[in-house]
Amino acid sequence: MIALTLFIGTLLTIAPAAFGRDDGGQGSFGETNDKQITDAMFMVIAFFPVVIVVLTLIQSRLEKRKHARMDAARARQANADWRGGW
Q1: CA 50 → CA 20, 60, 72, distances in Å?
Q2: Is residue 25 part of a domain?
Q3: What's the pLDDT score for residue 86?
């Protein structure tokens, strides 16, 4: 209930700022032309494959480390020196 009240209060505080500005339909970047929009969208298109490749490389590295730890634990279990107490 407190979170909902805080959210509505924040929304009511920020919302009037969206209607109070008359900039002729321009965004925060200013006047743009077709080339700027096209270049920006090409950057967006290139961003997602790069992110996918980077995250895949990170995941594969982590999986490789996980399997190496599992193999080392399995080898320790097979070695009689590491089993038992004293």
Answers
A1: 39, 15, 33
A2: no
A3: 61
